[in-house]
Amino acid sequence: MRGSVDFSRWAVVLCKPDAVERGLVDAVLARIEDAGVVVRARTDLVAEAWQAHVAFRDMLADPGRFPPDLPARLDETYAGQPVTVALAHGGPDIHARLRQLIGHTDPAEAAAGTIRGDLGADSLAAASREKRLVRNLVHTSDDPPAARRDFGTWYGPGRALQVSDFSRCSVILCKPDATERGMVDAVLERIADAGATVTNRCEITVQPWQIHVHYWDLLVDADRFPDRDIPACLEQEYAGRPVTVALAHGEPGIHARLRDLLGHFDPTHAAPGTIRGDLGIDSLDAALAERRLVRNLVHTSDDPDAARRDIGTWFGTARRELLTPPVPAQAARPIPDPLRQPRRTP
Questions:
Q1: Is 139 a catalytic residue?
Q2: Which domains does the chain have, with CATH numbers?
Q3: Which among 322, 333, 302 is positioned nearest to 190, based on CA atoms?
Q4: Which one of 89, 139, 214, 249 is the catalytic residue?
Q5: Between the N and C ends of the chain, which has fewer C-beta atoms within 10 Å?
Q6: pLDDT tens digits, residue range 10-67?
Q7: DSSP string computed for 1-36
Q8: How far apart are alpha carbons 55 and 99 in whole angstroms?
Q9: Taking the CA atoms of the chain, what radius of gyration do you get in angstroms?
Q10: CA angle in degrees (0–180, nearest 5) for 244-250-254
């Protein structure tokens, strides 16, 4: 997996023990995001000695520049101490940009406007007197080879972007009309271009039970739709027909952001810039006249509980490993937040 990642666009951000102890992790990561860098896969962990040794191997391998007790200082600072790591994504210059943003190694020498200059409270002189490492809040990968090493050091094999809960994952259902119109690629590209990581694309033929489980809320509240036979409409529109499902991964809040990106359930009322607004051709009026469901291309999970159910419905209950997607190798942009959408309506 790591061999396919373009590490010229990825850096590991290490918020050091002093940043954790001072409660500055959020501020540090926010400063990085405010600089236009996408930050994801935030992980809190307790550092092991070997991780600090590997992360700072260049210092350990250059004893002429550093004090002879550097190994002991690293162990004292990191071993058994809480740190926070995250992945930062940007253009090929991301490593130089981040190093400039965090500022000089010595917070006392760091320029105003840099993270260490504005938030740092230590100095190299104080650290030297006390025979310890300088407390300068944050480290970022120096270059692509360092990013590759840092990634393996802090995340380890198979731990990239691991989703510990369903707040970071949504199921995408490209409906039969998207499949029949050849719009699946366009829909998934719009979602990926908006900053979500799209994985595990799968083409399937819908079984009746899947659509019953998926739209359970419409079935149990069918009296809201006296003009239509909801069970019959669902089976007519979905059962035995091809659909495409995929997973979208992102930060908490992805469900609302994706729903906003999809647009209003009635394509004729969906705003320009939304998927349904730009690509939809059906209308609620036409659906009502024909006593069927509106054809609006795509559905995404409403919330974390729905994502949990949707994964079981469309991928199978034993597919939890799908929640660990690969690190994306392409540039990402934040998902826009147009008008929030109303409750789902057929």
A1: yes
A2: 2-154 (3.30.70.141), 166-323 (3.30.70.141)
A3: 333
A4: 139
A5: N
A6: 899 999 999 999 999 999 999 999 998 888 888 888 998 888 888 888 888 876 788 8
A7: -GGGS-TTSEEEEEE-HHHHHTT-HHHHHHHHHHTT
A8: 16
A9: 25
A10: 80
